[in-house]
Structures are given as structure tokens and as C-alpha cells.
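Q: Here's a chain of 205 amino acids. Please give me its 3D structure as C-alpha cells.
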Amino acid sequence: MWHSCQKQLELKIHSMPSGSVFGIADFAELAAPKTVSKMLARLEGEDGIERVLRGIYWKPDGIHTSPDPDRVAKALARENTWQLVPCGKTALHLFGLEEKSPEEWTYVTDGTYRSYFYDGKRISFLHTTGKILSTMSEKTALLVQVLKAYGREHVTDELMTRIASFLNFEDAKRIWEESRHTTEWIAGAIFRIFQKKKEKIPGEN
């Protein structure tokens, strides 16, 4: 039984692309958490995987010395069954509005306040209400956090035009529909972003 589960775990890891980050929860269908933990520990260093944090591993890509913080954050969220959305400078970076990686990767989550450190990187989780996370798609929630990071007084017409350039029409429409019940100024800004995108579509009313 152990040998069979170990083989399935190895095959699953082998099928993952280089740079993947995973934890015990990602193999929940194979065995109990303690068993999976032991299996991963046995593979560390000898089968192409490295430990990042307790219970979190990655498959090195041969280019970077440590995994992408956003992938680590998502793996931690899966381990803790949290929903999460990037916020602050992290949201700006992941949306494409800032090239420089943030010094601290921050996320709002329906879990607890917690910070993790690895290879000189810091990931922090901040608590927020689950309602915000559960009623929006990932892209909508990310854009809401982008606007919050700028603040109402800094969301200019130029910025909204730039944001619109990152979205296709269908994404812009879905984001507008999902964000109608957010804070009034955010909903208004997203509506204007949608309008800007709509104006670029020939034949649309």
C-alpha cells in the first residue's frame, strides 16, 4: 500500500512543471496527511524537490534559487483551506502595474494573521471578511485590491485607461458585474474602466 501511494505521489510530482510549489494538501487523495508528509520528506533532496517551509516543497526550475512567492502563498492557502487575494504592492505587481517585486508579499485572507519567511522573502496574510472573497472571481478581487492600493484620490482617468488595457472585453464585463456591490467609489471606477474597454469594441452599443 505504501509503495503504491509513494509511486503515485512521485508520478504526480513528475508531471508538474518546473517551478511548481506544493504541500501535503495537494496529495490528500493519496493518503493521510502524516503519511504524505513522510513521503515528501523521503523525496526531499533525492528526487528533485526541495523543502521551502514546513509542509511546503517546490520543484526547482534550474533558473531561480527559490520559488515564486505568489506560488508559495497559494500553496500555504491550500494547506490552511484559506481563500486569498493579493493586496497592496503585491496586487500592483501581479496585475502588471509595477515591475519591481515587493519587499513583502501581502495577501488578504479569510484565515488568521500570519507571516512566513524563506530565503530572505516575507509573505504576510491579513484577515478580511470571507464575504468579499467568496462573491468575486480571482481577477475581480485582485482589481478591487489594486484600486484600494492606489486610493480614491489617486485613481485617475489615465490610470483607469491603463488598467483597461490589461483586460479583454469579457473580463472587463465580468469584473463590472461582480463588483457592483463593493464600495461606491470602487464600483464607480470599475464601471468607468468597463466603459473605456467597451468604447474600444467596434459595433458595441
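Q: Can you summarize the key feature?
A: Strands lie at 21-23, 50-53, 56-58, 84-86, 104-109, 114-118, 121-127.
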